[in-house]
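QUALITY CONTROL LOG
STEP: pairwise intake check
CHECKER ROLE: data steward
CRITERIA: each record must contain a sequence immediately followed by its structure tokens, with no blank fields

ENTRY 1 OF 2
RESULT FIELD BELOW
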Amino acid sequence: MQARQTLADIRFLLNDVLRAPAQWQALAPFADTDADLAAQVLGEAAKFVDTAVAPLQRTGDEVGCRFDAGQVHAPPGFREAYQAFWQGGWPALACAPEDGGQGLPAVLEAVLFEWLAGANHGWTMAPGLLHGAYECIKHHASDTLKAQYLEKVATGEWLATMCLTEAHAGSDLGLVRTRAVPQPDGSVRVNGSKIFISGGEHDLTDNIVHLVLARLPDAPAGPKGLSLVLVPKILQDGTRNAVVCERIEEKMGLHGSPTCVMRFDDATGWLVGEPNKGLAAMFVMMNAARLHVGLQGIGLLEAAWQKASAYAAERRQMRAPGAKHTSLIQDHPAIRRTLHTQRAWIDGGRVLAYHTALQLDVAKHSADAAERTAAQRWCALVTPVLKAALTDQGFHGASACLQVLGGHGYVREWGIEQIVRDARVAMIYEGTNEIQAIDLLVRKVLPDGGQGLAALLEALPGAAPSAAARARRDALVQITQALAAAAPADPELPYWVADDYLRALALVLLEWAWGQIAHAAGESADARWSAPAQALSQWVLPEFDLHAAVLRQRIAQAPSFEQKQPSALDG
């Protein structure tokens, strides 16, 4: 992917659609960050991505990481690119100046990591958890730990991991067995094994900061008995800690990123946050990671689209309807449908992700309590939608773009098959997409009867919705109310339909995003925006009716559901 190809589009979405500079300048920390400064930062970021990171994409896939007696060696060029990355200040864009950061709005970091993922997903896995680790340490670690580790993580001089998963536990963190035994000096000794640890061992940086979920000796069973422990690869005195990489996994994709099996043998660590409250500290890191994973879906889909679009503009095959001569395949309706549909997801997804990044800053820094509350509600409800819907589209949309190249798409030299392989994992890690759907519906929407979701949809900013958009929003609110009424008598109901519910909400939000794009574009007939807008209407939004029908049908089958809200069940 070439980041510089997207600069004009992204500036339009930030400046004209979202009016992002005015939003962040209303917050005290960013009052001096104007649109010109942001444009300069993004221009330099695009240049770095295109020249230092993108050229390593194929090498990372074909050479991969090398495991040698507990040590992991990154593919050629990866260390040099990473050293230039952190020394150039890129990991620290959105970190506070007092912690070694640049104090810029989170949305600029979001754009950077979208580009990085599209240019070289394997390489980007290395710094992908940095900002989440920074937030976790900043908000939960002791002053002593912050003095030793916060700036190193903020600047990216040291990379970080998130060590949750164990072979027997998977996503059920309540089954974690790793132990942390307190020591007289205030440290703990950690024993246990973790799997699927991205970047658990490598030679990109001189130290690695592991954030490990473990149990204290007197901890209660289940997730409420988990504590978070900071375990460095290299201790303060320069000695190697008792942290061992046993092997790296052979994977479908992401060959440039080592996925490690890690063993802790009486490793020295220190508690982060309060005992038995490790999940609360860890979720700060995970929520930051989930937005970035959604951005990975956008970046990977953009990368696939660029390859498909370039191929379609050069390849001639048969005659398009009405043509007199052999046509470029971009003139065939089937190809146009594919390319325009993926653009609808890319550009609408960007609006949603960038708006979410803006809301993260509002939730932190706004002087208005009501604004902070609304921003927190947006981030809580929309983050799982972005993670699931955009990674799903990143994979399936990239596969559709591969189809544009026909047999050439299936051949390695064209590069698009790697994107499809790399994209698949984003639907799994940081909480599978099924878990995201359950989190959204069961934990965040239904507990208040859907009132928070209704308030979010009612308060969507910008231009007034069309009649069709209003009807879809109303239908989703009515379905939510019906689900809330039926679920007490049918506890399995929300779990059966959570995926359909998340997808329906994603479509409603995508329609809102395109409403804002259309408002900003005005009466322009520019096909750059009109063609994907038309594809959204013709090929994407009709999917809402399918998911609404599934939801209504399943609600009607609930054992004790009384049809007190017939409008929720109407076709």
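ENTRY 2 OF 2
RESULT FIELD BELOW
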Amino acid sequence: MTQTPTEIEKHQYDVVIVGAGGSGLRAAIAAHEAGAKVAVLCKSLLGKAHTVMAEGGAAAALGNLWPEDSWQVHFRDTMRGGKMLNNWRMAQLHAQEAPERVLELEDWGALFDRTKDGLISQRDFGGHRYARLAHVGDRTGLEMIRTLQQRTVQLGIDVFMEFTVTDLMKSGDAISGAFGYWRETGSFVAFEAPAIVLATGGIGKSFKVTSNSWEYTGDGHAMALRAGAKLINMEFVQFHPTGMVWPPSVKGLLVTESVRGDGGILKNSDGKRFMFDYIPEFFKAETADSEEEADGWYDDKKNNRRPPELLPRDEVARAINSEIKAGRGSEHGGVYLDIASRRTPEFIRKRLPSMYHQFKELADVDITVEPMEIGPTCHYVMGGVEVQPDSEMSGVPGLYAIGECSGGMHGSNRLGGNSLSDLLVFGKRAGDAAASYVAGLGGARASLSDADLAAAEELALAPFAGSGAGTENPYTVQHDLQQTMNDLVGIIRIREELERSLAEIEKLKERSKHLVVSGDRQYNPGWHLAIDLRNMLLVSECIAKAALEREESRGGHTREDHPGFDDRWGTLNIALSLNAAGDGVELATQPLPVMPDDLAAFFEEDH
């Protein structure tokens, strides 16, 4: 007997963007300007995107402070930061096109900080040879969202706010639309569209301590898997070195890398500046005769002296973790980040206004006179949907992925500042490609199947249907998942703990079949979480399985039982796909794309 859905609100578009962060809005603008009818669906409110948490700046080789900078150097830094596991073509396109995208943002009204000559100012950040982050104080992401949002509204692009997408619809092998619901009323909506661009962000809410906001439940990752796409690099989770550790209500809240870029240093409870003990051989070069001569900075070739606090994030996070484990942590379990002894109060308040107010208001700490207590926090996943570098299309025709829910660009570790320019570069490329794909269909498009819509509706309502037999509270299951990921799949990993995490995830998947929510569909956060858990559990399984498979330490993946690089793994990606039963994931290894000789030549001087 064929199922029929209840009355469902329906819309028809050429391109539907799921997510209204920097990449989603840039894709929407590009698709609209290419002539497509576009809708943007966002889980929260327009302007509230997680992009605003990217405070430091957008990396682009403008050469405003260092004329020696170029896309080639930026490309090389990005590949080195990703420990050569990046998709070389994505890293190349990003480095080449980032300057144009940043200048375009300026043309649209973004108000960047300026040099004394009136050019866009650029600040130093970890892993970048030259200061290349275009910035607006420590509120760069906010300015980016303000600018893109304003342009989106000016162009008249339709935006559906406080709307959750639960499933992607297909006709044959290709995308035909999306299904979801209004969070306010719980009523269902179907979007008929031959092109879907996933811009849903990351997976941080699977971890106990994270800088990510509530929306980051791996929706795009999981929906792409269920639609038939592959995920890559999921073992690589970036723990930002500096999140707040006190008070508990704000634990994990991001402390921008700009603090270190503008001179902040890391100290342990003994008052020692410890990062000099953790500079890897890979990053060492000729040094000054003494730390004092170089003001505590080390030489990164070409006589550009840089503090060890600005090593790539994975290196700094591991160093902080080691100090805390060795008993040299701060009162509340972190370490100290000190800029007060290095810069004047006027400088700090001008360059870091958000950080000044954040600590003053939330922790009663004045960062102009005392150090901050910070510690690593789950911040970013390098892994995501495997896409074609030039178009961002996945292996599913009509399905695109950009931003944090796409994989390949950052390899095993993302450099700070590359996220904002990544959003702009690949957002535009995906929007252009999606509009071109739809135009190429010549008006032919599949309609949505009533049976598929009814099945999606039934799945979304399952937590209500389980009221009689249901025994599990969604909040309890999420808490247990976060604790499992925090304790067993965190910064430092080992086989026994990873195996235990997978066993725990299987138990949680079984418990999730018995979720129960009370009340009705209006304003029901328990129901929203029950739906999110389906995605969080699937993505957590991907992370743990890939982490168990990769028997080496590289970037955002550290195996205590397999320290150091393994050359065998340096040329392989782990690809994950949904298993045949649809209730878990399976993995396979695949070779990295081979870098052309002219680009490979940039790395001949490396150790």
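INTAKE CHECK: passed for both entries
DESCRIPTIVE NOTE, ENTRY 2: The longest strand covers residues 372-381.
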